[in-house]
Amino acid sequence: MEVCYQLPVLPLDRPVPKHVLSRRGAISFSSSSSLFGAPDPRQLSQRRGAISYDSSDQTALYIRMLGACVVFKQLFARDVRVRSQVGFEPERRSSHPYLCIDFRTLHTRLSCGSSPADSGTEKRVHRLLSFQRYLHSSRLLRGIPQQIPLHILDEDYSGQARCMLEKVGSWNFDIFLFDKLTNGNSLITLTLHLLNQYGLVDLFQLDMVKLWRFLVLVQEDYHNDNPYHNSVHAADVTQAMYCYLQEPMLSKSLTSYDILLGLLAAATHDLDHPGVNQPFLIKTDHYLATLYRNTSVLENHHWKSAVGLLRETGLFSHLPPEDSMNMERELGSLILATDISRQNDYLSRFRTHLDQESLCLSNASHRHFVLQMALKCADICNPCRPWELSKQWSEKVTEEFFEQGDIEKKHKLQVSPLCDRETNTVGNIQIGFMTYVAEPLFGEWARFSDTRLSQTMLGHMGLNKASWGGLQPEQTAISEETETSAGGSRSKEIPQGSRES
Quick check: 49 and 287 in contact, CB under 8 A? Predict the structure, then answer.
């Protein structure tokens, strides 16, 4: 299976056009001029380091793919079709050992001669694929049967999904079932429904085609191979955010602009999450850690990725430029608040406001701060869900931790806290998280919004904590039995891991 990019080739004596076609996901341009054209210069965006154009050499197009750099020289004033294939190797030659995907451009080929009637078609610039889309399009190369997405749902399923949306404000909303009923399109369907329910599409005069394309790209840029940080998690956070927006303290104070920002931030808050945490990116010298100077690395990346999609789709291109810029900046402020390493700073500020009764929701900055706290609660509300839902999320996030730990062991890295499956269990991780992170946050949220929902969340968290405590002896026994039975095989795997790394 081949994925072809048809790139226009310019004569060496001609200047490069000063316009850019920005792609989603893994694409950025290193200068203000590029080979590709876009309909509106205001939509130019800096994207995440996969494709760039060096203006000092107008005869070369530099394509960087996660550390590898390939140069395509424009030797002829004819079209060049670039064919790329994905290969897998046991060793990773770049500086990112956890990525086992080696992008190798095998060759370039001059396009065959064509008639004048076909020249326009052949010179059409093909849409470039992001890293995530490229992987999906290359599944056959990995031996995985390619699944064709169903864009039109079966009537029975769509009917059941509509029935569920009628109760979208219920705290017992089963996002896993909803995702199945929407054929894996829970984030698109839920977000679009909420925007319509609030009347935001008409109020902000959003183009439905642009909005739909934006939501599709957002959902596609989540890595659904991640056990936890995937589009279903984003849909779950968006549904929780809607529940908080319905609370009396917020519903009577927030403006339509605040609501739009809150829903968009919830839908994009983990966009393009790689499935590993910030310390892992730092100790493997990942380019994102360098780009953001080891500070809120993932959250900055989520924000910039969301901005890139907004500009690419032109969702807010009809607004005055200053309004669009303000919206992007405030969207970033909300997403950056989800950095768990800054939890104590936000919690301390929230507690001070509540102690002094100084929150004034008629103040725009105070409303924005409350939105930040609401998004923080929505992001880590899994322990507050009913046991049947909370248990599934707990197992998923723990499996993602353990997968990172396995990678760290394989490449002789220090195993991050909570990521060693041999010394941790789902129960002890969850009990610690509830005790030191969730309970303080939701306790203060209940002080701010003392409603039935807040008490329900605290009640569920108490029951879930007790349930995990009751399961601890059982999990410990299973873990010890697994270690005993697998001891011999693990001792044989260590040299193999050493060779691979």
Answer: yes
Is there a contact between 383 and 434 (Cβ–Cβ < 8 Å)? yes
- Distance between CA atoms of residues 302 and 288, nearest Å: 11
Mean pLDDT by 10 residues, the chain (501 residues): 46 43 40 40 41 41 36 33 32 36 30 42 37 48 43 58 95 97 96 97 97 97 97 98 98 97 98 97 96 97 97 97 97 98 97 97 97 98 98 98 97 96 96 98 98 98 97 63 49 32 30
317 Cβ contact partners less than 8 Å away, ≥ 6 residues apart: 40, 42, 43, 324
Q: How far apart are CA 346 and CA 341, in angstroms?
A: 10
Q: Are 405 and 415 in contact (CB under 8 A)?
A: yes
Residue 467 has, within 13 A of its CA and on its CB side, a CA count of: 15
CA 75 distance to own-chain centroid: 39
Written as six digits, the tokens of 92 are 């990773």
This prediction has a pTM of 0.69
* CB within 8 Å of 188: residues ≥ 6 apart: 182, 212, 215, 216, 218, 219
Tokens of 468: 């995990």
Between CA 300 and CA 333 the distance in angstroms is 10
Asked if 307 and 47 count as a contact pair (C-beta separation under 8 A), the reply is no
Which pairing describes strands 51-52 and 101-110: parallel, antiparallel, or unpaired? unpaired
Amino acid present at 474? E
3-state secondary structure 291-334: HCCCCCHHHHHHHHHHHHHHHHHCCCCCCCHHHHHHHHHHHHHH
Distance CA 72, CA 193 (A): 45
Secondary structure (3-state) at 258: helix
Q: What are phi and psi of 171, to 5 degrees?
A: -70, -15
Kindly list the distances between the CA atom of residue 272 and the CA atoms of 15, 130, 295, 305, in Å, as whole numbers in the listed order.
35, 11, 17, 7
Rg (CA), the chain: 24
Residue 238 Cα distances to 42, 151, 253, 376, angstroms: 29, 22, 19, 12
What is each CA distance from 397 to 341, 421, 424, 457, in whole angstroms? 17, 12, 13, 19
Q: From the CB of residue 371, how many other CB atoms can be counted at a distance below 10 Å?
A: 25
Catalytic residue among 96, 126, 229, 286: 229
Pairing relation of β-strands 3-7 and 51-52? unpaired
| Sequence-separated (6 or more) residues with CB below 8 Å from residue 209 | none
The span from the CA of 501 to the CA of 498, in Å, is 5
Token reading at 371 = 């939105």
In the residue annotation, 107 being an active-site residue is answered as: no
Closest by CA position to 3, among listed 89, 166, 130, 93: 130
Residue whose token pair is 């790139």:
7
For residue 73, the SS3 value is strand
Helix (H, G, I), strand (E, B), or coil: what is residue 26?
coil
